[in-house]
Design brief:
The complex is a heterodimer of chains A (181) and B (401). Chain A has five helices and six strands; from the N terminus they run βαβββββαααα. Chain A has 181 residues and is an alpha/beta fold. Chain A is globular. In chain B, the strands form three sheets. Chain B has a seven-stranded mixed β-sheet, sandwiched between helices. Classes of the chains: A alpha/beta (181), B alpha/beta (401).
Chain lengths: 181, 401
């Protein structure tokens, strides 16, 4: 089973991203589970959302303490929240930033990867909403999910033009990180 | 689950699976007041009605939970299949009406999205809200996952509306943990649900041509018999729940157990007991402990009311220790409600197995696997020696006390 924790701020679509990841994983033939951090969520406040992906029905209902992968939608959270907490040593931490990964000097054995998802979102979607871009980046950086499944999940959730743009932006992030993997 | 079950599944929110299950049960009147974490169920049902997806159904928007359930008293007495859903303070506000529904023998079904009660205010999960309605004469069923909450909904109607039962039913699901989870579910098929659940045709209902009274005055010469007959309805419900579960498996092909379910319990020395979503985590921990050679199993309670005394006795008979997990507490007894029931049903029998209770998960306190492993270890100590602490709170923070 793979466990993913998504850090974001209220309004950045972290819970939606966790849900779309679960939908995409299921499209790939896996069982999946997504849930929010159950907080009193407000726009701008730090939030977390979780996804589990496995090859058996997922029964575990606890929160995720030792994630395989971490997605950080907003790099300013790094100063506020222990975003690396519990990550597996062979795990990956994916940060939305235009800085190099080394810049963050994260004290973790996990691999740190950055992608300028906000830029991609602005260029393709026209808005600084990067949750679907980060999902494409996740597919590219980890190989856990097919990008096609991410795109289908995105298009089903956001029909029409919005879905098309988000799907395209996800694919752009996928291509950039898939090439480096 | 059958082999092709994944093809029939879709990844949806637990609340949506619940609302969908309600929809295919073809309710006639829905009335509910939104409260976290039940809100999404009510929103989804409102959407279904607005989209014309539920025929012959009225959603009564109303100003409080008290009024929501009161509206359903009238609707149900008039012969409608009725539905509501609530949580926590909403259920507490309903309390007076909760008794009326069962006393008038109205088979309303209500999803309780379990949430802690105030004060202090908490929006997170535990079972104190539905447990506080234990003695109101409602059937209470507890679900482990989204599929089970979905599947229990038509079962609840089938049993509640049985002419020999005629009691309302609460179907309980853990707030956020199940209401807000996205996971693969087979959404109930309309044709199969129609085959399983016939239309509601009450023997007695309000009719101007044939006037009757519901909830009338009962003086001391008759009141006792009303209570006695409610208990009779519950006794019959024991059998009807088992039958309805078998019928469900026959039609839908899924088996969640009947009044109870068990997991690796046959040869278990240490037998855990619990209700609701924590059962899933317990199953994972049992697999881990079993691989370490610890003979541990689970008795899951699906029906808390009626409480399946006989089958619980039988299932517990061969264990060395019984370990009960409760997401609630009877303050003043220092014990959870399930633990009390288990001890009660073992007394006056030949079974003299030690029973210990653990109260956990209050107000949404997370229950990691390690917590369950620790509880199992405590059970092992009792099995080897004797009970030192009969009931205890789990994962207490000493720094706050």
């Amino acid at each position: 089973m793979k466990e993913i924790r998504i850090h974001g701020r209220g309004g950045q679509g972290s819970v939606t991203a966790a849900e779309l990841l679960a939908v995409a994983a299921f499209k790939d033939g896996h069982y999946s589970q997504a849930f929010p951090s159950f907080g009193v969520e407000r726009r701008g406040a730090p939030v977390a959302a979780f996804t589990r992906i496995g090859d058996m029905p997922i029964r575990l209902r606890s929160q995720i303490y030792e994630p395989d992968y971490i997605i950080v939608q907003d790099p300013t959270l790094i100063e506020v929240v222990d975003v690396t907490g519990g990550v597996k040593p062979d795990g990956k931490i994916l940060i939305n930033s235009d800085f190099q990964a080394e810049t963050f000097k994260l004290d973790t054995p996990a691999e740190v990867i950055t992608i300028d998802a906000t830029r991609i979102a602005l260029d393709i979607i026209g808005l600084p909403i990067m949750n679907t871009v980060m999902l494409g980046a996740f597919a590219g950086a980890t190989g856990e999910i097919k990008i096609r499944s991410i795109q289908e999940a995105v298009s089903e959730r956001f029909p029409g033009k919005v879905g098309e743009k988000n799907s395209k932006a996800a694919n752009e992030a996928y291509k950039r990180l898939e090439a480096k993997r | 689950m059958t082999d092709n079950s994944m093809e029939k599944m879709s990844v949806v929110e637990g609340s949506y699976a619940t609302a969908h299950a309600v929809k295919v049960c073809r309710p006639n009147v829905i009335s509910a007041y939104p409260i976290t974490p039940q809100t999404h169920i009510v929103e989804d049902l409102s959407q279904f009605i607005a989209d014309g997806e539920i025929d012959n159904c009225e959603f009564i928007t109303i100003e409080s939970e008290f009024s929501a359930l009161s509206a359903l008293v009238g609707a149900s007495a008039a012969g409608a299949r009725t539905y509501s859903s609530t949580s926590s303070q909403g259920l507490e506000l309903m309390h007076e009406v909760v008794f009326n529904v069962s006393g008038m023998r109205l088979p309303t079904v209500m999803t309780v999205v379990n949430r802690a009660v105030s004060a202090p205010i908490s929006i997170w999960n535990d079972h104190q809200d539905s447990i506080s309605q234990r003695d109101t004469g409602w059937i209470q069923l507890y679900a482990e996952n989204s599929q089970e909450i979905s599947d229990l909904t038509p079962l609840a109607y089938k049993v509640a509306e049985d002419k020999d039962v005629m009691l309302p039913a609460m179907v309980c699901m853990d707030g956020f943990i199940l209401s807000h989870v996205f996971e693969p579910v087979i959404l109930l098929e309309q044709d199969l649900t129609d085959e399983y659940l016939p239309p509601y045709r009450p023997e007695h209902f309000l009719d101007t041509k044939n006037p009757k009274t519901f909830g009338s005055f009962a003086d001391p010469s008759v009141y006792t018999e009303f209570r006695y007959m409610q208990q009779m309805g519950m006794d019959i419900a024991l059998k009807k729940i088992e039958e309805a579960a078998k019928e469900f498996t026959r039609i839908f092909g899924r088996d969640h157990g009947g009044l109870i379910d068990t997991y690796r319990a046959d040869d278990a020395d240490i037998l855990l007991m619990a209700m609701g979503s924590v059962v899933g985590t317990i199953k994972d921990v049992i697999d881990e402990a079993r691989s370490d050679g610890i003979k541990v199993g689970l008795l899951k309670i699906r029906s808390f009311r009626p409480f399946p005394v006989e089958i619980v006795r039988k299932t517990l008979a061969d264990a060395s220790v019984i370990v009960v997990l409760d997401k609630n507490i009877s303050i003043g007894l220092n014990e959870g409600a399930l633990c009390t029931e288990v001890k009660s049903c073992l007394y006056n029998t030949d079974i003299n197995t030690p029973v210990i209770g653990f109260m956990l998960g209050h107000g949404g306190r997370d229950i990691p696997k390690g917590t369950i492993h620790n509880i199992i270890n405590k059970g092992r100590h009792v099995a080897k020696s004797s009970i030192k602490v009969e009931n205890e709170f789990v994962d207490l923070r000493g720094d706050l006390i």
